[in-house]
Amino acid sequence: MQLLAQQLVNGVALGSIYALFAVGFALILAKMGILNVAHGTFATGGALASYWLVFEHGFSFWVALAVGVVFAGALGVLADLVAFEPLRRRNAGVFAPIIASIGVWIVLLTLAEAFAGPSAVSYPAGSVPSEPLRFAGLIVLPAQVISLVALVVVVTAVHLLLTRTRFGAAVRAVAVDTRSATIVGVNSRNVLIAVAFMAAAIAGLAGVLGALSDNNVSATIGEALLLKGFAAVVVGGYGDIRGAALVGVAIGVLEVMSSQYISSGFRDAITFGVLLVVLVLRPQGLFGERQLVRA
Amino acid sequence: MSTTALLTTLQFAGVNALFALAIYASLWTGVLSLAPVFFGAVSAFTFGYVAGTLGLSPALALVVGLVLGAALGAVTAALIIRLDSHYLAMATIAMVLIGRVLIINLVEYTGGPSGTLVPGELGTWLWLIGSLVVAGYVMSRLSGSRFGLAADAVREDPAVAQTLAISPRRIQFVGFVISGALGGTAGVFQASFLQYIGPDTFYTHLGFVTLAAVVLGGAFHWAGPIVGAIVFTILPELLREPMGEYDRVVTGVALILIIIYMPRGLVDVRRLRLLRTRGRRRTPADEDPSRTGSTPATVEVAP
């Protein structure tokens, strides 16, 4: 029982990071229509930037976290300006942005590998909060608390922003149709840049928190997140970010539980197997709304 | 680059061309799929296991790869072909991811993380070029066939295709089977040339590189993937010396530039036809520079 509860805590904490990443991934997919393969590299960028500040320049972790998040957001905006905006202007089809995002992914991953080097490193001891909290016989690491809090704050904030504000209405209008949004007075260019920044910044946050939780910073940190976030978005449906977030947490729990009780080797196979089954049985995702599509 | 290195690179370009053709076969029917990488993995590891335990002649190995790939393609298509484009692409990427996990865990059959050794009898120019020629011939014959015309229609607009009594699902199913057959064959070749296959041999990197090759070469003509694969395999090798570890940056940048400025790729039949028409117009009779500039828009036709 104790073990189950402890693993549940671990699972929820791990899932929070997946969920955070999935929220950003779903934002880009739903609001900009881009299946962004490069999203994981934004997370890596954020993690590497924060590590560099802490390790090389001795900044406090919290400052580094903020800078890492902003840096990841800037990467997202840059990718949008360089790769996706020209395609939008040319009315390229559905597949062109995916292929452009593969290009961005290759470039950023190569740069990240060159910057980080082959060996995995971790935040220097003492620079990050690491004193475990004991609570009713359970051990909870500060990183786990931070992850969960970050998830709740981000999901609530983004959801409210999208559903309750003028900006949110503009985002949703642009997502439906850029041109008609422009006609009713929305500056779609600025809206898209803002969404790109937001999505990439959230990915950066997930990257920093992932690095903190694993106590490990490497160039491939975003790749693992990408696969899990991607699964969360598919299973949860990308219409509503709360669905993706919930499934992200569930995937974390599933992963921890299956490696505890079934087999750690097949952990990922179970996750992706669930992904495939949901895809086949419920293509719009568990929480997805049916979309009406005109031919 | 030395001649030996160049020849080795060309061999891998040939294998990548087969993979690229496999991706092209489903893209032709309007489906973006990385599944050929998975089909290739299954064929390659089956080949490795059977060759290791029972022994397998080269020709038979190719047939096994082809049939296994086609069968897998059929099963996959039956399951996922009705998904929307984004979800379908995601499902095929998920297949590639699951494939790696299976390879790592089915140690008994695949050698697990340390991989497995494969006989290299098929890794000769004769087999490779022979297969490429056959594949190219089949694709070129298909492009003018009823299937090819239907595939073009489905890709351009499934709704219109349906009004022409074409079943998009059926066409896409056939595309997936062809894709599976090519992917399975490519997997066997990849294994033979490397003589060693591991969990990372058939992974996202291979999928993305071959997809890039299709885009670069041109996704609207069967020769596109072959040209693209050759360019995209040799280019990084040539860049490795001057660029060092940054060679892949050039690959990525090239991909972005191509999809923006040359979305139809290097082998673009429409543009070639356009250039030819323009050349023919430039006869002495109407040598009028002000008019040549405006002609392209009027003669542009879909291939």
UniProtKB/TrEMBL annotation, chain A:
Highest taxon in the source lineage: Bacteria
CDD domains to which the protein is assigned, alphabetical: TM_PBP1_LivH_like (cd06582)
Localization of this protein: Cell membrane
UniProt xrefs under InterPro entries: ABC_transp_permease, BCAA_transport_permease
Main location: membrane
Membrane topology (UniProt): Multi-pass membrane protein
TM helices/strands, residue ranges: 12-30, 37-55, 61-82, 94-115, 135-162, 191-212
Keywords recorded for this protein, A-Z: Amino-acid transport, Cell membrane, Membrane, Transmembrane, Transmembrane helix, Transport
Family of this protein: Belongs to the binding-protein-dependent transport system permease family. LivHM subfamily.
Official protein name in the record: Branched-chain amino acid ABC transporter permease
Species annotation: Nocardioides hwasunensis
UniProtKB/TrEMBL annotation, chain B:
Keyword Transmembrane: yes
Pfam family, one: BPD_transp_2
Membrane topology: Multi-pass membrane protein
Protein name as catalogued: Branched-chain amino acid ABC transporter permease
Transmembrane segments: 30-52, 59-81, 87-110, 122-139, 173-194, 206-234, 249-267
InterPro entries per record: ABC_transp_permease (IPR001851), LivM-like (IPR043428)
Region (Disordered): 280-303
Subcellular location field: Cell membrane
Keywords: Cell membrane, Membrane, Transmembrane, Transmembrane helix
Entries under CDD domains matching the protein: TM_PBP1_LivM_like (cd06581)
